[in-house]
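Input/output pair, single chain:
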Amino acid sequence: MDEQRQQDPPAGQAWGLPAFLLGFGLYYVVSLLIVGFLPAPDGPRSGARLLVPFVANLLLGLVPWWFSRRRGRGVVVDFGFLPNRRDFSVGLSCGVISVIVGLVISMAVSRIIPPAASPVTSHVDGWLIGFVAFLVIGAPITEELLVRGALWGALAHYGVPRLTVLLLTALVFAFLHLDPSRLASLFAQGVAIGAARMVTGRVGASMVAHATNNLLPGIFTLAGI
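Output:
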């Protein structure tokens, strides 16, 4: 019983729901504005075009952080933001599982639905390194604060069963990426990443799992694969 209490988020995270809805809504509004004002590149994305889309992604984390600071006790207490030793251990394990599951499902689905093309320059420069850094470090922070932080905390606050919370947040995580060809793999990866949050009760663990999952595409991007 004591272990369960340690894993449960602090009470009073009803504010997590408006934080999630506002962060989610602003993300899509800004994404649409970027798509509307930034013409599609003729070739692979390069330079500032690599990082501009991440402006919207920042809102996913900034909104929950602001709500937690104003209405909660800060992301460290509310979400277990800073990874500890157990977070790294559990997160790495779940992240490796996420990579394997994602690859297997993606290969199976690609035979039916061709993956959406998202060409990125293969020329290694500061912009590309920044892109990969945000992919491996930034996105796991922002997306986990929104999905496994604000939304998870709100659902738990309203008494939604933990397994249901795991599946719902994985589904939101999948739709967040707006890529129908990867929906199944993203959902499975969301379950694996969310398992780290469920086991430890901390977003720090799911951030490590998410970063581990994103490390492989980051390496592929730098290698020009």
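Residues 1-6 have pLDDT under 50 and may be disordered. The CA atoms of residues 15 and 71 lie 7 Å apart.
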